[in-house]
Design brief:
Elements (H helix, E strand, L loop, with lengths): L2 E7 L5 H10 L4 E3 H10 L4 H10 L4 E2 L2 E2 L1 H10 L1 H28 L4 E5 L14 E6 L2 H10 L5 H10 L3 H7 L2 E4 L4 H12 L5
Parallel strand pairs: 1-5, 1-6, 2-5, 6-7
Antiparallel strand pairs: 3-4
Helix pairs in contact: 4-5
Length: about 200
């Protein structure tokens, strides 16, 4: 029987680093963020047309989806946020279900699914175990701003919308802390997962 393990954590916590490490070790990982990124980067797809017609024509610049414009729209218009999230959630869920079904059929011993908003969308019951990466707000802020993906204003809005670490601890089976170096984080991750990924 295939064990399906969920990975989650707040923005900038290090869950992508964990997913990448698991892939290096040879494990199969489905990443929600990768699916979403592919949706945004493919030109003239159904998603492209959805953004243009249902969200805002202003979000299309030079025949590409402008992510910064999308961020502004969703944080200033709750209705647009709900419409966009519903569409993306449906597409990501379909991709995730195909991944799980395919690997269960192949009788893989263990597979991982990385979902940033697992608790916010009440998806934890779909997994045999949930791993949560926890990191301080200061460290998360520094990581996100270093990558220049968001402004401080937008980042603080994201923090307010996401589940608290207290709630994450309650709803997770395994907690991995990431407040020091990447080397320390990987060491903590392998230690926490030792019994799980034998």
């Amino acid at each position: 029987m295939t064990k399906v393990v969920g990975i989650t954590g707040g923005i900038g916590s290090g869950k992508t680093t964990l997913s990448n490490h698991l892939k290096k070790l040879g494990y199969l990982v489905h990443e929600s963020d990768v699916v979403v990124s592919e949706m945004y980067n493919k030109k003239n797809t159904s998603f492209f047309n959805f953004i243009k017609n249902k969200i805002s024509n202003r979000a299309i610049k030079h025949n590409k989806i402008d992510k910064k414009e999308i961020a502004k729209l969703i944080f200033n218009n709750k209705k647009i946020k709900i419409i966009l999230e519903k569409y993306i959630h449906k597409k990501v869920q379909a991709s995730r279900e195909v991944f799980v079904k395919k690997n269960k059929k192949k009788k893989k011993k263990i597979i991982f699914v990385d979902i940033p908003l697992m608790f916010e969308n009440k998806l934890e019951k779909n997994f045999d175990l949930v791993i949560c990466v926890i990191s301080s707000k200061k460290n998360r802020t520094n990581r996100v701003l270093r990558n220049k993906k968001f402004t401080v204003k937008i980042l603080n809005k994201i923090f307010r919308l996401q589940t608290s670490d207290k709630e994450r601890r309650k709803r997770s089976n395994i907690i991995i802390t990431n407040n020091r170096t990447k080397k320390d984080f990987i060491f903590n991750a392998e230690k926490a997962l030792m019994g799980l990924i034998k």
